[in-house]
Amino acid sequence: MTKRAGDEVVNLLKDYTPPPEKKPKRIPPVSKSRAEKAELRELVRWVVLTRPGPRCEIGQAFPEIPCGSIVTPERKHAIEVDEIRGGAYRSTEMYDPERCRRGCHRHHDHKTANKREYLRRIGEL
Ligand SMILES: [Zn+2]
Description:
Elements: H1 7-14, H2 32-36, H3 38-50, E1 79-83, H4 90-93, E2 100-104, H5 105-113, H6 115-121
Antiparallel strand pairs: 1-2
This protein binds zinc ion.
């Protein structure tokens, strides 16, 4: 029998056993420390959503934008909780009611898109 190209590879493959399949380690969607503080965050949200004052606090800074906080049966959860600076500050602000504002989706979106203007208007810049 003559040796053909590829025979060596075929011989090597006879002894080959694939490594055991490893499940890739998944990164949890919520960090352990954040999961541990979930109850505190819920408490902060409750404080922010129930404190006295205008229903849409964010909207106070943008009176030229019509507020979307009008309650209808379809929009029971129309009010959202936002952190004033957010971003890198979010991890600390989200546990401090004084650093959170409630607002309608429209004003929240507008604030996010115009954060510097918002911070300037509320005296944070
Ligand atoms: Zn609003």
